[in-house]
């Protein structure tokens, strides 16, 4: 990124740049804003804003990435973590590691997320199967699974909205 300085504009949610802005500058700022939306202490009260942040962070990967948003009892974010990196069409997800991270983070609930590098966010049978396995593993230690969001260039799909959680 160049040495652009972005400052808050007069209206909430607007920014001013110190000079001409490149596409790389805009993408860098978008990633910073998305990370801020997933920062510790933020309340997940708007699924659409959460999906937008997750999409910004994951849609450009050329390989599958699997992560999770860890939440407290009031659905405040404890942390966002990318856990597994896969190939162009699959990522191995290990329930033991998911449960371990959720416990060490003292999470009460989680939202899973992964991307589809193909751009199509339609969940596969493998996506719903791993979601059920992870949900069952986390239920054993009283951690709720709120959603699994699949991200693609064409948008996001929520398994919870489809009644698959």
Note down, in words, how this protein is organized:
There is one protein chain. The protein is an alpha+beta fold. It has two domains: 1-37, no CATH class; 43-158, Cytidine Deaminase, domain 2, CATH 3.40.140.10. The protein contains four helices and seven strands, in the order ββααββαβαββ. The strands form two sheets. Strands 4-3-5-6-7 form a five-stranded mixed beta sheet, with helices on both faces. Helix 1 packs across helix 2 (47-58) and helix 3 (95-104) crosses helix 4 (125-139). The longest helix has 15 residues, at 23-37. The N and C termini lie far apart (40 Å).
Low-pLDDT segments? none
- Arithmetic mean pLDDT: 88
**Fourth-tier CATH superfamily name of the largest domain:** Cytidine Deaminase, domain 2
Into how many domains do the coordinates divide? Answer: 2
Helix- and strand-based class?
alpha+beta
Helix content: 25-40%
Give me the CATH architecture of the largest domain, please.
3-Layer(aba) Sandwich
Largest sheet: 5 strands, mixed
- Beta-strand segment tally: 7
Quick recap:
The protein is of the alpha+beta class. The chain has helices at 23-37, 47-58, 95-104, 125-139, and strands at residues 6-8, 15-17, 65-71, 77-85, 109-115, 144-152, 155-158.
Mind sketching the topology for me?
Blueprint: E1 6-8, E2 15-17, H1 23-37, H2 47-58, E3 65-71, E4 77-85, H3 95-104, E5 109-115, H4 125-139, E6 144-152, E7 155-158
Key structural traits:
single chain; 165 residues; alpha+beta; Cytidine Deaminase, domain 2; 2 domains; 5-stranded mixed β-sheet; two-stranded antiparallel sheet; 4 helices; 7 strands; globular
